[in-house]
Batch of 2 targets.
Target 1
Amino acid sequence: MPLDIGWLEAMRHVNRSAIERRVATLTKRRSIKKDNQAAWLLRAISLMDLTTLSSDDTHERVRRLCAKARNPLSPQLVKGLGIEDADIRPAAVCVYHPFVSTAVNALKGTGIHVAAVSTAFPHGLAPLETRICEIHASVEDGADEIDVVIPRGLVLGARWEELYDEIARFREACGDAHLKVILGTGDLSTLRNVTLASMVAMMAGADFIKTSTGKESVNATLPVGLAMVRAIRAYHERTGVRIGFKPAGGISTAKAALEWLILIREELGRRWLEPDLFRFGASSLLTDIERQLEHHVTGRYSAAYHHAMA
Ligand SMILES: O=C[C@H](O)COP(=O)(O)O
């Protein structure tokens, strides 16, 4: 849709203390019953973009990650949980551009998507044409999801038109690939900025809005998440279009994953708890989920290093 500055003006008032109060209520009073927790953790796996974004990534590491995505749980655990017939796998594997074709080959026939972080991840500070070229290159190599970053300065300077135009160019460059727009919320100073950047990203054609790169000093937090899902709700109410949400960065425990799922269930409803509308971006969450599921089956915890990719 065109950039609607009037709508941004109307969304300017974000009450941080009300948001923080709501988050506190959600995480303290709402819970997932013990018996249901295993099912919710399995759901969390299927909502995951299993990620490696390290400076020392190699093709070998990406192939191992893809093998893990194909079989995220050990055969004993699958048997113990009685889920032999359920196809529990992460929604996508997320990598840097040089590893896209490796991941595409390793995941052939699985239906697991390949996401590439593009546009000069993690800061977005390269010439626009360079960033657009990067998207084209990743799509050409077979990525069907593109996670772009925005230059945070455009938000901090309230340069909404420029931000809109850049994201619209990213949208166009993606073609049929899904576009996830990373806001880098830890750099945006205020929840108002988070809300307005979310609105601009959605207006410009984002399929998903995503909190963080995992490289900011503050990554995905629940108050920021709540501000973003409220923006998604407002966008849906006005346009009828559902935009997805991806919290990412620092989400490494099963407990944290359950809190995020409660937040989404309460604020957006169950329709958003499907992989086409919700993803966790996480590099180490799967290991803790495995440990919790193992505890559910055996009553014992194993050390993280017992799990591949830990
Ligand atoms: O997009 C995903 C993030 O980079 C993952 O961050 P993490 O390594 O803190 O889980």
Target 2
Amino acid sequence: MAPKPLVAGNWKMNGRRAELAELQAICEGVSKGAAGSAEVVVCPPATLIGEAVKAAAKTVGIGGQDCHAGKDGAHTGDISAEMLADLGASYVIVGHSERRADHGETSEAVRAKAEAALRGGLKPIVCIGETREERDAGRTLDVVENQLAGSLPDGATGGNLVIAYEPVWAIGTGLTPTVTDVAEVHAFIREALTARFGAEGAKIRVLYGGSVKPANAGELLKVANVDGALVGGASLKASDFLGIAKVYA
Ligand SMILES: O=C[C@H](O)COP(=O)(O)O
């Protein structure tokens, strides 16, 4: 049986309290069935998580965009998985390419964060994906294989881990891979997950991310082994985000 689809929005470093109105509109849409069979999650900046959890009232899940590997301690500016869970978050994105690039996060660091998420009771959404140069050099599957091997926690199950395949060159650019390319990479990821986690690997949701919009969601999300989307820019506007989620309605 195919895993329950997941449509997750990553607001990145966007959003003030006023934008909780968009979250409210997303929740209203979801409660009226706009996302059909899909689970919907919004990952606002950490500053809004507490209020977002209250506003969402469990209609949609709320997630963080990063967490520290530790639980508490002398780490100025960092936030632990336990702190996010304490606010009512249920997911956390780890290893987004923007963090890998801006903060030099290695796959080893990402794995430690994913383990921390599980320890804190959150479901990590582990991001992987190749750069333009790596794709042009024909190294996409090697990069994906190495990132999976390095970033994934042991003991993952369909219920506690999500993968997001996000080609770096497709993020925020309006460019997307062909459906054939998406199918190839997602099939490869599925194979790697089942090799590592056995039957659970077939249940782990593998999201596609990178310039997903209402106009292309239909074709991208229907590709085999694509179990949903991680949406950046289009998750900031309720009508666009719901326009993507309605693929599952
Ligand atoms: O986490 C989301 C992705 O980076 C995709 O961003 P985008 O939809 O703005 O391309």
